[in-house]
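Aim 2, interim progress: modelling of the heme C-bound target.
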Amino acid sequence: MPLIWFSMFAFGLHKITALAPVFLGVVAVAGMPASASSQQVPLPQYTVAQVDAGEEIFQRVCAFCHESDLTGGDQGPPLSDAYFASSWGGYPVAEFLSFVRDEMPLTGPGSLSDDAYVEVVSYILSFNGIPAGEIPLTMGSPGIITIVAKD
Ligand code: HEC
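Predicted structure of the complex, ligand included:
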């Protein structure tokens, strides 16, 4: 079950796998309000300029493991489509940002500037169909990652 396996890694549960069933139960409950009422949920905000900068960073720093088209491979999981939707759909973007900053790149967590992290995350959000806007994404930005998986 690579999906579950990777999800557990995504939340750092490789350190405390014994808690996985409890944790996954909490995720299921926490994820429900977002998917049940996606109309009222505020989307994360970011700009096209952030996406452009983030694409360059992604291709330079992250694509080696996640592939240039975000489909993943031997070195890292996908960051797109159904995989991303099931991993991060319904989560606050601030939580996603913290995860990426604290865990990625795998070879140097926290090694980018906060600006670079919000840019690369903007690129991932854009890739997954969340529309760009006028308000830049910042580390503590509000908004819920509300996405519909593409087939
Ligand atoms: C050396 C390989 C490597 C590099 C470089 C790397 N990653 Fe990862 N990434 C992984 C692996 C392996 C996992 C799964 C294990 C984990 O979550 O700790 C992962 C997991 C993730 C996840 C969670 C995926 C999910 O939903 O399960 C995200 C998001 C992510 N990486 C983003 C990035 C970003 C953004 C960069 C560039 C700044 C990056 N990664 C660079 C290997 C890498």
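The chain has one domain: 2-127. The two ends are 20 Å apart (CA to CA).
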